[in-house]
């Protein structure tokens, strides 16, 4: 079995890539440098080939601990057959990185330069700076947003011999890598769908069983949950410091509950407040602003950790942005937490009253360009301080909660699928005909849809995008992600 070592400085995303490849949150991931101190070893499926992944500590200077981590990392590299050297694409190429890369390259092993945190199209422009490493095997990706990983996976796959292919009947679960990659289609017809992930489509990564259902049956097998949950909406108000989260909470509650100040970070502990609106319970959680990396100390570090925990328990997130100031990379990172948790979402452009009117259209376009992974989220422009348009937010929350919780009858779902299939047939795979038998929704919050078909791996990303667009046209999924799972007929 081939060994793959993931090596690089602290906090470049090694553990995140490791977790994604092994389909498990095994290594501790955080924004604090040096959280991986041991070499983690896990078997992973790269499509249908088996490999052993090695997640190493960061290569850095400055303390005895990092010297030991560097020693372990280099030992892992000597043992590995394939080396993935990761760097942070948000910074400039480091001379030390180049020296270490050349040192590893001199081992004569297959090595790729993985430039992580290329989170959006604008960041792609920085990728050329890393070509000074002098390697053709360079891949610009974003692990947190699952962008542009297919070429890297193709490269790894080609380096693993065919003798490591696992027979289909021996595979207990399809590799996460195979299911989530944004593959490029050769079918010219689907060029319009062959773009970066725009947040309209997700691939369900859990191991939930999907029961077979009749095409004309009602989806009564949807995962059950307490109906009271639908009437109780847990809303996370998130954003970096001083964008107006506390002011927004006060405006929604129509009272002063948290300390409001122009000093960043004046809200320290989360404050939960519940109101009843049109017979629905709305619980708002106002958190401390997420600080820029390097400024998280003491109680602010606690606030960051608490915010992440709170998002895991929330149904919906209000991502608050300051429309009067330029957006920051930190805004994208915070919004990425919503994307990771598959939450219903509203993007709140606060301080709209003091933003320059001549730049309103430009601001809205920039939001859509920078936050493509939240393309499903509606945008509301308001002023929390003056109360302008805040009252509309309550109704938007209720509407999105309905969308997030809706159950589509199997018959109606398949009417849309059948119409889409008649309009454009499925492309074949290696000359084999791909058939979709039917679709059924098997879970809500967020809506999850199973596509029952003869060859699940043949449901290409571009066709999933096409089906997603047709479903969004037919049903109101505004504000909610939509997840898919391809299953064989009769497969449990």
Which SSEs are present, and which pair or pack?
Elements (H helix, E strand, L loop, with lengths): L1 E7 L5 H9 L17 E7 L2 E10 L5 H16 L2 E7 L6 H11 L4 E7 L4 H4 L13 E3 L9 H10 L16 H5 L21 E2 L23 H5 E7 L6 H9 L17 E7 L2 E7 L12 H15 L2 E7 L6 H13 L2 E7 L9 H11 L8 E3 L8 H16 L4 H14 L12 E8 L4 E6 L7 H14 L8 E6 L4
Parallel strand pairs: 1-3, 1-4, 4-5, 5-6, 7-16, 8-10, 8-11, 11-12, 12-13, 15-16
Antiparallel strand pairs: 2-3, 9-10, 14-15
Helix pairs in contact: 13-14
Structure overview:
The chain is of the alpha/beta class and 492 residues long. It has 3 domains: 178 residues, Rossmann fold, CATH 3.40.50; 120 residues, 2-Layer Sandwich (GMP Synthetase, Chain A, domain 3); 179 residues, Rossmann fold. 31% of the residues lie in helices and 21% in strands. It contains 14 helices and 16 strands. A hairpin with a 4-residue loop joins β14 and β15. α13 packs across α14. 42% of the residues are buried. About 17% of the residues have low confidence. This is GTPase Der. Keywords: GTP-binding, Nucleotide-binding, Repeat, Ribosome biogenesis. Associates with the 50S ribosomal subunit. Belongs to the TRAFAC class TrmE-Era-EngA-EngB-Septin-like GTPase superfamily. EngA (Der) GTPase family. One of its GO terms (biological process) is ribosome biogenesis.
Using only CA atoms, what is the Rg? 24 Å
Q: Give me the CATH superfamily of the largest domain.
A: P-loop containing nucleotide triphosphate hydrolases
> Helix count?
14
Task: State the share of residues found in helices, binned by percent.
Answer: 25-40%
* CA-based shape: globular
Proportion of residues in β-strands: 15-25%
Strand order of the largest sheet: 2-3-1-4-5-6
CATH secondary-structure class of the largest domain: Alpha Beta
Query: CATH topology of the largest domain, what is it called?
Result: Rossmann fold
Count the strands? 16
Low-confidence runs = 24-38, 169-198, 206-225, 256-261, 287-300
Count the domains.
3
Mean pLDDT: 77
Distance between the termini: 29 Å
Order of helices and strands: EHEEHEHEHEHHEHEHEEHEHEHEHHEEHE
| Major sheet details | 6 strands, mixed
CATH architecture of the largest domain: 3-Layer(aba) Sandwich
Structural class: alpha/beta
């Amino acid at each position: 079995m081939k060994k793959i070592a993931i090596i690089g400085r602290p906090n470049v995303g090694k553990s995140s890539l490791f977790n994604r490849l092994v389909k498990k949150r095994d290594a501790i991931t955080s924004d604090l440098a040096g959280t991986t101190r041991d070499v983690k070893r896990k078997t992973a499926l790269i499509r249908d080939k088996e490999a052993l992944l090695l997640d190493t500590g960061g290569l850095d200077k400055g303390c005895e601990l990092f010297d030991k981590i560097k020693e372990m990392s280099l030992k892992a590299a000597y043992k590995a057959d394939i080396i993935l050297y990761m760097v942070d694409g948000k910074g400039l190429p480091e001379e030390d990185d180049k020296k270490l890369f050349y040192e590893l390259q001199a081992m004569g092993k297959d090595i790729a330069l993985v430039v992580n945190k290329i989170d959006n199209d604008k960041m792609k422009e920085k990728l050329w700076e890393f070509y000074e490493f002098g390697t053709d095997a360079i891949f610009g990706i974003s692990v947190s947003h699952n962008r542009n990983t297919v070429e890297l996976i193709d490269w790894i796959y080609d380096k693993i011999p065919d003798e490591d292919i696992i027979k289909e009947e021996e595979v207990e679960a399809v590799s996460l890598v195979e299911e989530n990659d944004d593959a490029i289609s050769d079918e010219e017809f689907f060029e319009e769908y062959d773009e970066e992930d725009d947040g309209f489509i997700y691939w369900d990564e859990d191991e939930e069983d999907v029961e077979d259902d009749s095409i004309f049956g009602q989806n009564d097998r949807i995962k059950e949950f307490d109906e009271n949950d639908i009437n109780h909406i847990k809303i996370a108000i998130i954003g970096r410091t001083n964008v107006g989260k506390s002011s927004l909470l006060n405006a929604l509650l129509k009272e002063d509950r948290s300390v409001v100040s122009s000093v960043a970070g004046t809200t320290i502990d989360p404050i939960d407040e519940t109101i009843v609106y049109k017979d629905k319970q709305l619980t708002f959680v106002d958190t401390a602003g997420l600080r820029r990396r390097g400024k998280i100390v003491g109680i602010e570090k606690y606030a960051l950790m608490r915010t992440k925990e709170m998002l895991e328990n929330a149904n919906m997130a209000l991502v608050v942005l300051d429309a009067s100031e330029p957006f920051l990379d930190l805004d994208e990172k915070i919004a990425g937490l919503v994307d990771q948790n598959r939450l219903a979402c509203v993007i709140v452009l606060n301080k709209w009253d003091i933003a320059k009117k001549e730049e309103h259209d430009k601001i809205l376009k920039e939001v859509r360009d920078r936050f493509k992974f939240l393309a499903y989220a509606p945008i509301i422009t308001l002023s929390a301080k003056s109360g302008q348009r805040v009252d509309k937010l309550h109704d938007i929350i209720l509407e999105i909660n309905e969308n997030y919780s809706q159950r589509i009858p199997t018959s109606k779902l398949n009417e849309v699928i059948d119409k889409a299939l008649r309009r454009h047939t499925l492309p074949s795979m290696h000359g084999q005909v791909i058939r979709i038998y039917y679709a059924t929704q098997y879970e809500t919050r967020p809506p999850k849809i199973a596509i029952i078909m003869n060859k699940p791996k043949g449901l290409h990303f571009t066709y999933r995008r096409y089906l997603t667009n047709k479903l969004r046209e037919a049903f109101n999924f505004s504000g909610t992600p939509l997840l898919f799972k391809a299953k064989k007929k009769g497969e449990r």
